[in-house]
Amino acid sequence: MYTYKNIFVITLLLIGQLALSQTPNLGETPSQEMLSSWDTTIDPLGRGLPDGSGTAEEGQPVFLMKCAACHGLEGEGLINDRLVGGHGTIGSDRAVKTVGSYWPYATTLYDYIRRAMPYINPHSLSDQEVYQLTAYILYMNEIIEADERLDKNNLANIEMPNRLNFFSYEYELP
Amino acid sequence: MDKKLTLSKPEHVASNGLLDRRYFLKSSAAYLTAGSSMLMGSISHAQRSYPDYMTLPGAPLSGYGHRSVNEDHVQRYISLTRGTTGAGNSRTPLEKLHGIITPNGLHFERHHSGIPDINPDNHQLLIHGLVERPLVFSMENLMKYPMVSRFQYIECSGNSRPNLASEASDLTCGEIHGMISCCEWTGIPLSTLLAETGINPNAKWVLAEGADAAEMGRSIPIEKALDDTLIAIFQNGEAIRPENGYPLRILLPGYEGNISVKWLQRIKLSDVPLMTRDETSKYTDLQKNGTSEMFTLEMGVKSVIVSPSGKQQLGAHGIYEIRGLAWSGAGTITRVEVSADGGASWTDTLLTEPVMRKSLTQFRIPWEWNGQPAILMSRSYDDQGNRQPTRSEFIQNSGLQVNYHNNMIQSWQVNSEGQVQNVYV
User: Fold this and answer.
1) Other C-beta atoms within 10 Å of A72: how many?
2) Which residue of A has its CA nearest to B218?
3) What is the span of the domain harbouring residue B385?
4) Which of A10, A58, B38, B372 has its CA 20 to 30 A from that of B166?
5) Domains located in chain A, CATH noted
6) Residues B356 and B250 in one domain
7) Interface predicted TM-score (ipTM)
8) CB pairs under 8 A between A and B
9) Residues A101-125: pLDDT tens digits?
């Protein structure tokens, strides 16, 4: 199956090369500055994580100031999503999906906070603050210790409790 | 000229009032003959009282037209994420529309952080990652590319979620199923742009990222990106509406709506899926055993009767038209059957042309209602051998906790007073 997919892609690549001369070719080469500033992608292997680091202890005051109004003082959920708890509920009749009980990758948490949170003022947190908040939310879920320092070298290695319950019939997962 | 208008006797094809799907077609010839003779026999000389709009010239011409104010009640159903004004969804009032094309102002919405106000002069599309040469395109340049037009539906994979609750809610068709809409989309095949960037053989996934405040992104399998994926710029002939991605969105026919990322600003080719928030914590299918399936992208074969439907009220006894919509993310609808007796007997409906791939298809059948209670259902089939599941088949396979991809058969109960209500069978 996978081999067929590869053959399919290679065939399309060849078609693509043939088509090169027949399309308008109006794309421009982006500057290095554009490439580096626009590319905020973080993958599940941790590639793309920025410099900086943070601990839960550092993250607590940031969380109280910027997150607790919507997510509750202890991440228990308020007007918006619950972030903490629900462990052991996935697979029951009343699944409580939180970062701790459901999310498969810690890199996703960093990526999502950095691009979309806080809801009322996204793109306002520093990379350092995002590490701190990531650490605090993982700490509240009892996944890391209060003084454990997260950075680009260890975030992808965090073992999320529900990770192995994710699968795909159709695609190879990293 | 006393010609009596006669109709052929309705032929019942399944129990509880379902008539031959061509009954209206057969009857129209009789109408024509009778109608012309009636016209000649009914000349009146009484003075007509003209309404104001016929005694004065009407409204002026306008640069951009609007619907009649009398139609202002036809609105999307809005539900907001708590504490926000721009996150949540609005659903298409399917039961108030006819045909397969959704008017641009009634296309369903699903936003994660509101609608961005983008000036196309400042908007760019960057394609980079595992390509031979990264390229950036201005809107001005993209408009010079050859484009294709296709009729495609978009359905949110959370559509029809109300019917995953344990008790049936008394809701309208649009409230339950309105996170589907269908338009003519015009744009550039993504394969054209990827031919220009070239593709590194290690590329297996394509990240699409929007320029909204949440910078929402999804990972697309490269096979799909090179197949029928469009960079869409026009919706039903005009520029895409802001709430549908102005000035451009990616469009993946037949796949769950969330992956057709709006306000597209960036495409990155990668060797792994990026595991964004919306393909991990959301849009994953929780199984009964507690595991979760990821990247269930193709939408299932599905249909729904839009009339009569939830919260509607039938009028006098007589012949009604049952009318509905069917679609499949795998291909083309080949057949839609309906039942008026809760699934005991079924009969074929008439599919209205055009019947197109990964588009909405309209079906219809006449039904004689004389006050008998009824349960109306429809089930669809596609050209890939798929059949829409019953509620119990769906629950058996997926469970109610799955949260997404609900394509189970809808049942509408009609009581002896003609009230129509959502029920589970």
Assistant:
1) 17
2) A41
3) 302-423
4) B372
5) 49-165 (1.10.760.10)
6) no
7) 0.90
8) 182
9) 999 999 999 999 999 999 999 999 9
